[in-house]
Amino acid sequence: MKFIDPHIHVTSRTTDDYEAMAKAGVAAIIEPAFWLGQPRTHVGSFQDYFSSLVGFEKFRAAQFGIRHYCTIGLNSKEANNEALAEEVMEIMPLFLAKENVVAVGEIGFDDMTALEEKYLRIQLEMAKEVDLPVLIHTPHRNKKQGTYRSMDIIEEHEIPPHLVVIDHNNEETCEEVLRRGYWAAFTIYPKTKMGNERMVEVVKKYGPERIIVDSSADWGVSDPLAVPKTGNLMLERGVPEEHVELTCYKNALAAYGQSGQFEESDWLTPEPIDQRTLFEGNSVLRGGQDPRVDKPEDDRIIQ
Ligand SMILES: [Zn+2]
């Protein structure tokens, strides 16, 4: 079975992760622009980060047979630095126009401050202007309140719910998010709140429609294999294969496919891997390692 992980911060992950993901059937991934741990102090840091999301990281993923896409946005935490946020708003349209950018995001609330709301609203308007879907990050504290408030604001801006993925849901928010017509994404964090056991129960209870599974794996304790592991657990627990396919592949494809930048044909007939390739003079190999070079005639069509 093949999978899409529509929310993973692979910039923070290793080449071992890429190899394991490809082996587990992850064919395509989306890397949302987010907070890096260390708060940024200059707009140039955002510029280089966005460039890396549409450039080097896409190259690096391809070296391991994974198709990489991204979303561009100012995260909620750094929206609280107003002077910097203003500058980020100025450079965003340039990046939103790049190939492989499938949404504006991840945007939303962290502490539910006035500045977070201001830049959420500005970015929702930007999404409308460039006609891209939106990825909403919901807060980890005051989850329910933050999720409902985000949806109220989206509705004020008259963005149709089918263009919006609300992420980091739990059992408390799922029902209302689905009822209002949004895509409801679930982040599977190992050992915590939304583990894969609980995800299986959510899919059994609500069915597969508009539910999306992701890992949100980043520089913290997280699991880049969360999507294939959850998919396999669902199968083990008797969830129909068709439902696993929807929640771990097809729904993400449908939601982000609305960007016109996310097409299955991109990864079903991939370019052969050639690790001799360089990006700005950089290779993924170190000190005399043997490059993996697949021949074009190899049967690389993903089943
Ligand atoms: Zn994230």
UniProtKB/TrEMBL annotation:
Lineage top rank: taxon: Bacteria
Transmembrane segments: none
Keywords: Hydrolase, Metal-binding
Keyword Hydrolase set for record: yes
Pfam family, one: TatD_DNase
InterPro entries: Metal_Hydrolase, TatD-like, UCP005295
Name of the protein described by the UniProt record: Hydrolase TatD
Biased composition (Basic and acidic residues): 289-303
Family membership: Belongs to the metallo-dependent hydrolases superfamily.
SUPFAM superfamilies per UniProt: Metallo-dependent hydrolases (SSF51556)
Organism of derivation: Bremerella alba
